[in-house]
Specification:
The chain has helices at residues 12-24, 30-39, 46-76, 83-105, 111-163, 168-179. The chain has a domain at 1-78. Helix 2 (30-39) crosses helix 3, helix 4 (83-105) packs antiparallel against helix 5 and helix 5 (111-163) packs antiparallel against helix 6. The chain has 185 residues and is mainly α.
Length: 185
Amino acid sequence: MPRRSFVVDLSTADKAWLDQELVRGGFAGYEDLVAKLKARGVDSSTSAVHRYGQQLQRKIDSIKSSTEAAKAIAEAAPDDADARSAAVISMVQSDMFDVLMDLQDAEDADPAKRVKLISNAARAISDLARASVSQKRWAAEVKTKLDAAKQAAATKAETVARRNGLSDADWGEIRAHILGIEVEA
């Protein structure tokens, strides 16, 4: 089993400082960072700081990429029914499941820490479940409103069609298009 990362033992201030230094330095200059950490009273190695820097860089790159993709998607494909939120909730639920499975595999972890992690995970899962229910309720409301609007449009169009002598076959085809119904030719 690998050693515990030195970052776990850092104070909040030291961790924030290290994160800031890694980002500012472009995730380079690890020897210099180790020397600065030692000056702050933190004992570490170049390889340990490098491992942590790689993890942090992956997280930041992932967040940047996700943010850029979300902006592009939002611009290219508006989402009134909030299907993207449903997809995101599903992805997070899947990741939470993986985390819980990893937590179960970590049998040699401190029991108090395990209980705290499980408690935090349970709270996060509860929040996700509420978000999922709310999103599904919203999607159902949007669908109901959309169906009602389509039906109202079809009714108004039928009045105009009948008044202008449109045939039943032609009206049926127009009505199917308004309601989004596939019609065989």
